[in-house]
Structure formats: structure tokens, C-alpha cells
Amino acid sequence: MDSLSNGLFRALAASLLALAILSAAPSAGANWLTRVLKHADDAGVKRTGKGIAAIEEAGAHLKTLPAARRSRAVAVELTDEGHWRLRNAEGEVFTAATPEELSRGLRVLTPLTEEAAKQLILLTNNTLFKDRAKLKELPADAEFNALIENRVYGLHRRIVGGVERYSLDVGGGVRVPVRNRTEVHEILWQLARPVDLAALRVLALEPGATGLLKRTRPADAMTAGRVTVETVDPERLPHMLNAVARSTVVISGRMVGQTLHFRPSSGPERTLALDELRHAAAVHDVNLVVIESASARQPGTRNWFWQRVALTRLDGPRTSPALPDLIAQLTGGVPVEIDAVVMQELRTAFQLAGLARGAGGGWTAPVSETWRDLAPEVTGTIVASGLRLDLTSRVRQRELDARFVPGIPAFVQVIYLLLAVIGLTGLGVAREWWQRLWPVEARTDYPRRAGYWAARGVRGMIFLLLFMPLVAPASASIAFVRGTWRTLVAVGTILAYPFTRRRAA
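Predicted structure:
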């Protein structure tokens, strides 16, 4: 019996050690869970983009259009065989194998009138990402939309350097280039996330500043609909991000490569390398937003007219707008395009260039180059010329949202709950072991009744919350073996009862 007890306690010690090592490595656990969530996410995308269900889903969206648009709308899907499947709002279906049959099918399903001289084509999810070259067979003068994850986006086609480019209009003048399925789904999810203005921290970089970032903003952080700027020391900023974990931090300056140039309230320009700041933001799940400007002046400082410098139209009411809404405030609604996307397991980074210039992307400039440079000096306003975002990835954010208790990886919490449930099946065995480790308190050991019950309460809580889940695999196994043995003995007793009774007679 002693050898059995020693073996059980050795197994218990090994279980405790394994769980301690598991809890001490949250990053590895998070990576494991994020991989599972990532594969589950991809599987969901593939399911909604295959087979007849995709064209039927697109057809259901056509029925929700106004009558004027519905009469010229058709859902289009590219099959695995390279054929076109067409469906209009009335449910009529046409299959085309050649460009000529495709043109005939569009005319049959959407007969155009003088009032509706242009067809509205709704592409299914798999069509947009399957064979880009086949899209050239569609009429160039049609109005295009794309159905992705149950949402309809405007689809723009343009020629850049002789190559046909496609981009999705997500609102606010923001367009997402269509390159591959994974990137598009990640960017669309990022742009659809609501931005909690209460968690938005606009910072001014000031060397030698003594202020510290706190978990909550100052009481006057939102005054007259404006976000108060907080002054911080840039050298200490990476170490202060722990206090604003899972929030959004906004900084501004002039970007030169990967270095941010900023001008404090007094003195010459300084520089800040963003690599360390990005690493700290990733560690603490902080969304880092860098607003590029031709001027290196910081928000909250004074210009030579002694006016307060602020971020252009960034201030707003106490709401949770989507990211394109804030981008539209910075750009004045001028179309911009996502560029330079970098996707990692836990982070997603991208940038928007040309917010205040027309070069490169073909967008018109909201302000002239001269006004962009003079605005901070004359009006006290920082005009954005670019935007860089380093955000928590979709998979990582889902893992964070799945946590019941902040700071503890979701997979550790799930394992703990499973062990607690399993531990209930071995409650009796665990209680026997617990009494050997921590005997029941004697009432005579405590001068007051309150102390006695407090000690028993602490003992019971430690047993239920810690000991019982930790020993659950061993206690449940032994309880199962004991229960099975008792059942076999009972069945044997019942079966042997007639023979025992006859022998006794």
C-alpha cells in the first residue's frame, strides 16, 4: 500500500511540475492556440467560397437591392472547371464555357434598358481569388462588386504599368488591393474592427518628460470632443507600453526609412528608431499607429504663432468608429490604398501612402505640397502625408478575446476548466489525498470561531481551485478503476447469489 501511495504522489508531483512549466511558457501556448485558430479560420473561408452555395448566397444579396439596381444585377461565379455560372435576382441560372457564351448569358439574365445602360456584376468570394486572368472576360464597362464573408464591397479595376489591378472599396476612401485570399481577409477584418476612442492614446514625444502612461487616461482626456495629448519621454516609451496594453497608441512625425524624426517643444529635431517600439507593442498587444507628416512638430506643442499643434480632424465624439472612418478624417475622404502589408503570426502591419500627395498611386492630393509644409507652422495643425499601422493580428485578437481572465493564455484557462470538470469525477479520491497533505483543522486550535472557519474556508478554496484540478487525471483514473471494480463485484455477487443460497441451505 505504501509503494502504491508513493507512486501516486510521484505522479502528482510530475503533474504539478508539467503544469507549472506549461503556465511559465504563455508564448508557446499562444502560438499553439493561434495555429489552431488560424487553420479553423482558413477552413471557414474555404467552406463559404465553394460549390453552388456561393452563387446562391450571392443571389440572396441581389434580392436585397433596390429595384432599379436589382434589374441590372447578376451574380457571377467561376467554377473549378473554368466555366462561368451566372444567376440573377429571380433565380435564373446560366452556365457559360466561352467568352461569347458569357456575353450572351449576361444579356439574357440582365436585359439592359436606356435607364440601366450598365450591368452590375457581383463576384463570389472564390471567383475573385481563383483565376485573375479570367476576369478579363467580364465586360470592362460594368459596375463590379465582390461578396466576401457575407459583406459586399465595391471592386475597382485599373491599369498600372500595363497590368490590370483590382482593389476593394471598404469605405472612407480606403481601398484594399486584391493580391491573395489570406491578405485580403486579414486586412478587411482589421479595417472592420471598431476603434474604441476611450482606449486611444495620442502621444507627444518630449525628451526628459516626467509624465508616465497610466492604464486609464486623465479625467479630462475628452474635452469639447477633443482627445487630450499626453507627453512622454521617447526613450522610456517602450517600457511604458505595459501600462496601456491592448490599447491604441498614436504618434506622429516625419519618417525617414524606419526612423521617426520629431521636433520637441524646444530644441532641434530628434530621432526615434521604431524597431524597439514595435517589439514592445507586440509584447503588450498594443496597436501602434504612426502618422507621417512633412512637419516633425508634435501635437500639443506651440508653433511660431503660439498656437497649439493638433492632429488634423482626429478628434471626435465618444463613439467606436471603424478604422476607415478615422482614416477618412485624416484624409478628408480622398481615396487611398493599403500598401506594404507584412503579416506575421501575432502581428499585421501595413501602411497607406499618398494621404496628402498625388504621386505614385494616382490619387488626387487634398492639399498642395506648400500648404502641407506650412500648415503646422501657420494653423497649428499636423497634416497627414502617410499612415503606418502595426496591429494585433486577427488570430491573436481572437485568442485575447477568448480569455476569461486577462493575462492568462486562453489555452491554459481551457485546460484548467477541463481539469476542474474531470476532477469532480475523482472528488472522493482527491479528498483522501488532500486530508493526508493538509489535515482538517481542530476547533481547539483556534481561540475564536471566526478564525477556525476562515482557516477551513482557505483550505477548501485551495482544494477546489488548485489541488483538485491538478490531480484530476490521477484521481479520476483511480476513481474509475475503483468504481469499475465495485461494479464488477456487485454484478458477481448478484450472479452468485442463487448458488450461495443453495449451498447455505
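Summary: The radius of gyration is 32 Å.
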